[in-house]
Specification:
This protein has 260 residues and is mainly alpha-helical. It is built from 13 helices and 6 strands. It folds into 2 domains: 175 residues; 81 residues, Orthogonal Bundle (Arc Repressor Mutant, subunit A), CATH 1.10.10.
Length: 260
């Protein structure tokens, strides 16, 4: 059964994340005591910032920098580019990273209050083998940290991923989406396939439509944009629409093309 992480109650703060990321990236032999000394943060904060970095795919299971970390550090080490934030957000949406966020993107169909979200998330978790019987405050802690990262903090607020109206949470119209970001997510979800039908893409967890809140028509427009950029082929046969994966280089190079 999958567990959830409350991150010790520490919010996702971009500047704090960068500080620990910088120290780990440039000092791979550092132990926790070194990170505590150099950062000025307490042990609990350091531990939970490292968890964030792992769930954002900047640290691996051994808390060492990933290949994505190298790309981000080389091109945008202060996390200033909105595309960087989108990539970090995308990796945080993984079920193994943040099951509540995964639920929001893949299951939320209409606006809900935070209390309604907590209730429905618990029901969804039972059906999806996610452990939530820690006590009410634990689950609420993850929900608060996740929603605050879109609305109140400096992490993802400017991307307009979620909005609140009349105390109800709903998806916003996303900012700063470009073709290389779309391609990065499409190819990161590829899983060895050579093609995928448009209908299969619509149903895939964390697909580009769900990440960027695109309906069927808008998603098709983005597929056309990827085709026009030479990053996929779009083939229609009979009543099926196929996206053909034509890009053959490493997926991370798509981000390099953006950063240029």
């Amino acid at each position: 059964m999958q567990t959830i992480t409350k991150y010790g109650g520490f919010k996702l703060d971009k500047n704090e994340l960068y500080k620990i990321f910088y120290l780990i990236y440039n000092n791979p032999s550092f132990k926790n005591k070194d990170l505590i000394l150099e950062s000025g943060f307490g042990k609990n904060k350091v531990d939970n910032l490292k968890l964030y970095l792992k769930h954002l795919n900047l640290l691996d299971k051994l808390y060492k920098p990933t290949n994505l970390a190298e790309t981000i550090y080389t091109n945008d080490k202060y996390f200033e580019d909105e595309i960087t934030l989108w990539v970090l957000f995308y990796h945080w949406t993984g079920k193994e990273s943040n099951p509540f966020l995964y639920y929001l993107l893949n299951e939320l169909t209409d606006a809900k209050t935070k209390e309604e979200l907590a209730k429905i998330f618990r029901s969804w978790s039972i059906q999806n083998d996610v452990k939530t019987d820690y006590g009410d405050d634990f689950v609420k802690g993850l929900i608060n940290i996740t929603t605050n990262s879109f609305l109140d903090s400096d992490a993802f607020k400017n991307l307009n991923i979620f909005k609140v109206q009349n105390d109800r949470y709903h998806r916003g119209i996303p900012y700063k989406v470009n073709v290389f970001l779309l391609a990065y997510i499409l190819y990161n979800n590829r899983n060895g396939r050579t093609t995928i039908t448009f209908d299969e893409l619509l149903e895939e967890a964390n697909n580009i439509g769900r990440i960027f809140n695109l309906n069927k028509e808008k998603l098709l427009e983005q597929i056309y944009a990827l085709r026009d950029a030479g990053l996929v082929k779009y083939v229609q046969t009979a009543d099926l629409q196929h996206i053909v994966y034509t890009y053959q280089e490493a997926t991370l190079k798509l981000l390099d093309k953006h950063y240029g």
